[in-house]
Amino acid sequence: MFEPPYTRTRAANERLRAHECDACGWVSFPEQPQFCKRCGVDASWSETRLHPRGTVRSYVVQQRLPEEFETPLPLAVMDMPQEESGEPARVYGLFTETDPADIEIGMEAEGVFRRVFDVAGLPIHSFKFTRPRGDRL
Amino acid sequence: MSSETDVAVVGAGMIDFGELFEQSIDDMLAAAFRDCLDDVDKGMSPADVDAAWFGTIDIADNASSGLGLSHPTGLFEMPVTRVENACATGSSAFRSAVESVRAGNTDVALVAGAEKMRDSAAGLIEGAALDQVWRGRGVTMPAFFGLRATRHMEEYGTTREQIAKISVKNHENGAKYPHAHYRFTCDVDDVVDSPQVTYPLNLYDCCPVTDGAAATLVVSEDVVDEFTDDPIWVAGSGLSVDSFERGNDESLVGFPATEQAAGQAYEQAGITADDIDVAEVHDCFTITELVTYEDLGFCEKGDGGAFIDSGEPLLDGETPVNPSGGLLAKGHPIGATGVAQVNEIYEQLRGEAGAVQADNDPEYGLQHNIGIGRNATGSVSCVNILSRQR
Ligand SMILES: [Zn+2]
Fold first, then answer.
1. For residue A93, which residues of chain B lie inside 8 Å, CB to CB?
2. B254 Cβ partners below 8 Å, 6+ apart?
3. B256 interfaces chain A, CB cutoff of 8 Å
4. Is the ipTM of this complex over 0.90?
5. What pLDDT, in 10s, does the model give residues B186-231?
6. Which residues of chain B have pLDDT under 70?
7. Which of A84, B7, B144, B356 is the most buried (most CB within 10 A)?
8. CA angle B195, B200, B204 (to 5 degrees)
9. Which of A60, A66, A124 has the CB atom closest to B198's CB atom?
10. Selected residue of B126, B199, B241, B375 to mutate for chain A interface (largest A Cβ count, 10 A)
11. Torsion angle, CA of A98/A103/A108/A109, rounded to 10 degrees?
C-alpha cells in the first residue's frame, strides 16, 4: 500500500538498512547507490545497518511551518554509526517529544519508530529522535 | 587558451523589486529588457541580439522554456535557452552566455532573469522537500542555513550580534538603493528581538519574498566598440556542486561548493580574493553572508564574525559587500537575483552606482550565489568576476 518511492526506501526507513562503499568506506543512507557520492567510484557495496543512537552535529528549531506540522520542530544533522565498525552516515533527523532547550551539539539522540506523515491517508513510518531515556538534564 | 574571445558587459537593466501583483512575468521581463537596451552607451536594438539565456526556476509555473523569454521580448529565430540551477539560476544563466561568447559562438548575448515569487508561496515549501523521508525530512530554507549558524557559533564562538550586524549593514545599504524591495534601516537589537523563524535565525535574518526581473547584455571583443567605449570585462567564472552528505565537516559551517566555484573563478581571472574590491554575495540569510566571507577567502575559516566587526564589508570599508542591500533588503526573485548582482558589480566598476557607490575606485568585483537542492542535502554555487581592465 506504499506509493513507489516509499516502497523503494522501506528497508531504510523501517530497519535502518544502509550501504558502505567498498572503495572508500563512505556510508550511503537511505539510497541504495551505484556510483559513490564521495569517491566517485562505480563501487561495490556492502549492506550494513545503522545503530539507532546517533550524535547531533548541528541543529535548529523550526517555529514557522505549515499547520500540519507540530511546532516548535527541532531538526538536526546527525551522525549515525553502523551497528558494527566503520564510518557513520550523516543524515537529517527530526526530533519528537523533546524540549528544544534540551538539545545541544555533541549530545546523543535515540532514534524511535514513529509515524512521520500520511500519503493519501496511509501512514508512513520511520525514525524520529529523542533525548535518550535516563539521560535527562 | 589565447584563442578564446574576451567577453564584455555593455548594458544592465532591472525593474524595481517588490510585491508586484499588478505585473505578470512577461511585463517584468519586457521592462527589464527595455531598461537594459536603454542602458547601452551607444544604443542597441533587439535585432542586434544573437542569442539569449533565460534564468528562472519558474516558481509560479508560467515560463517553462526559452519561449518564456521570447514571447515578452520578441526574440525569435535564435537560440534561447532556459537555465535553472536553484538559487544560482541567474548567475548560471550569465555564465552560460559568457561561455558561448568566449567560445566564439555568439557576438551579442542577452541574459534575463525573472521570478514571480508572490504568486505562489507554496512553491517555496515544496522546494524544501518537507514530505521526504530521511533526505530533506522537514527541512525549510531557514533550517538549511540555520544549521550552519548553530554550528558556527559552537565551533568558532561567533555571536548572535555579529550575525545580526550583516542585516544591519545590508538594510542600511538597501535604504539608499532605488530598486530595493525594503528600504528601512534597523539596528542589532531590532534583529535580535525580531520574531524567531527558525532558531537561531529571526525574521530580520531572512530575505523577503519578492517579485523581480533583471537583464544584462554581454558581447564579444569583436563588436564591443559598436556599443560602448567603457566596457566592463568578464575576468572569470566558476560553478560547483557539493553535498553535506559527503561527510566533509566544512559543510557544517559553510559551503564547499562556494570555495570550489570561487577557486575556479580566481584561477581563470589570474587573481586572488585579496584583489576583489567590491562584492555582491548571496545573503538569503545573514549567516549565509557570514560564512561566504570565509568560503570566498575574504577572511580565514571561522573569522567571519571578526570580519564584519572590522567594518571591512561596510559601504565605506575596504571591501564593500552587498552595496545594493543584498537579498536581505533588495529581495530575492530567484531567477533575477544573480543577474541583478552582476548588474550592480557592472555599475560599481563603471562608477555609476550612485548613493551606494564604493569609494575605493574598484578594479575587480565579484558576484556570488549559493543554492540548495536535492531535498535540501546539496548546494550549488556560481561565482562571476568582472574587471575594469581587459
Ligand atoms: Zn566511495
1. 137
2. B148, B152, B291, B292, B294, B295, B301
3. no
4. yes
5. 999 999 999 999 999 999 999 999 999 999 999 999 999 999 999 9
6. 1-2, 121-137
7. B7
8. 45
9. A60
10. B199
11. 30
User: B138, A38: Cβ pair inside 8 Å?
Assistant: no
Please state, in angstroms and rounded to a whole number, the distance separating the CA atoms of residues B390 and B233: 6
- Report the CATH fold assignment for B7-121+207-387: Peroxisomal Thiolase; Chain A, domain 1 (3.40.47)
Q: Is B264 on the interface with A (CB under 8 A)?
A: no
Q: Take residue B314 and report the three cell numbers written for it.
A: 561596510
What residues flank ion ligand 1 with Cβ within 5 A? A 21, 23-24, 26, 36, 38-39
Pairing of strands A122-130, B7-14: unpaired
Number of independent structural domains in chain A: 2
Q: Tell me what pLDDT residue B236 has.
A: 98
User: What is the residue type of B49?
Assistant: V
Nearest to B370 by CA among B382, B355, B385: B382
Joined grid coordinates for residue B135: 533526505
Report residues of chain A scoring pLDDT below 50: 1-2, 137
Both A64 and A24 in a single domain?
no
Domain enclosing residue A24, as ranges: 17-48
Question: Which residues of B are catalytically annotated?
Answer: 87, 332
A59 to chain B nearest CA, in Å? Answer: 5
CA distance B254 to chain A (A): 12
Q: Does B61 touch chain A (CB under 8 A)?
A: no
Distance CA A26, CA B338 (A): 34
